[in-house]
Each structure stands twice: as structure tokens, then as C-alpha cells.
Specification:
single chain; alpha+beta; 5 helices
């Protein structure tokens, strides 16, 4: 399904720690609901890498009419999973559904940890060896430092990669 258009609209005000979206997609070719569900369930791009913070099931599908819900679904897969529900035909595009994820764990903080794990994996080292590497975290944003092309951040040695268990 690489050729698609999507329309993403926040479905409600942000709940504490959760971000939810109402998504409408136009697929490159028509797909049945069964095919769409199989594609969502089969989305596991990091499965072969066995990264500590990557969830085994990045997208979980819920079939209840009232899901996903921030209170019940935000911490799924230690906050690194996305919950999808209310999948239905879209009268304008092909399909629409709601999705929910953790705002910081699946968002900026979790993505930074996962990116560090991916870098360590791409470097050909095991994550055990990578646990002793230095990572530079740079804060982005429009500041005087950025305009002067100076890096603002710190170098820290982390004792391990991945979220605390």
C-alpha cells in the first residue's frame, strides 16, 4: 500500500500523556477490511533487529466500539505501541480509523531511544557493546545558538539502551 493519501485530524483535545488521531486514508488500490487489518497487523519493520525498546506488536487493533481510549490504551507495550480502532469505510477516501499513542514515550523520548538503538544496530555492534557508547542529544529549535550554527546539547554515557523495566 505505498501509494496512498491520508488525512490526519486530532480527534479530541489531548488527554494526559496520550495523543489521538482520526485518520482517513486513500489507498493506491482498493483493499477489503480484511486486507487492511492484515497490513496493519503485519507492520513490524524492526522485528528482526530485536531492539530493547521496539514493541513486538507496534500496532494493536481493537474491535470494540469505544476503543482506543487514553485511559486504557496509552501505556500499551510500555508506551511504545499504537492502538488502532473504530475501523470503518470512509465515504470520501477508502478507510478511516482512530489511533492513539503515548505522547512522550512513543513520541520524542521513545523515538530518541529507539533511534539510538537503531544507530548502534546499524554500526554493527551488539546493544550490549553499544551500552558503553556516547550519544550526543541535540535540542532543536530556533535559538541564537542555532542561528550561529553552534550545537546546544550534551554528551552523556548511558549505562544501557532502552526503557527501564
Amino acid at each position: 500500500m505505498p501509494n496512498h493519501r491520508e488525512r490526519v485530524v486530532p480527534s479530541r483535545p489531548r488527554a494526559r500523556r496520550a495523543t489521538s488521531w482520526r485518520i482517513s486514508v486513500k489507498l493506491g488500490r482498493k483493499a477489503s477490511q480484511k486486507q487492511l487489518l492484515a497490513a496493519l497487523r503485519g507492520f513490524r519493520p524492526l522485528q528482526r533487529m530485536t531492539l530493547p525498546s521496539a514493541p513486538d506488536e507496534p500496532i494493536q487493533i481493537r474491535y470494540e466500539d469505544d476503543r482506543p481510549q487514553p485511559r486504557l490504551d496509552v501505556d500499551r507495550a510500555s508506551g511504545m505501541g499504537i492502538t488502532v480502532g473504530r475501523i470503518r469505510p470512509c465515504p470520501v477516501l477508502d478507510w478511516k480509523f482512530d489511533a492513539l499513542g503515548h505522547n512522550t514515550i512513543r513520541g520524542a523520548a521513545g523515538a530518541a531511544i529507539l533511534n539510538a538503538e537503531l544507530l548502534a544496530h546499524a554500526a554493527g555492534s551488539s546493544l550490549t557493546a553499544a551500552a558503553t557508547r556516547d550519544f550526543v542529544f541535540v535540542r532543536h529549535g530556533e535559538t541564537d545558538w542555532n542561528r550561529e550554527k553552534r550545537v546546544q546539547g550534551s554528551v552523556t554515557t548511558f549505562p544501557r539502551c532502552g526503557p527501564a523495566t
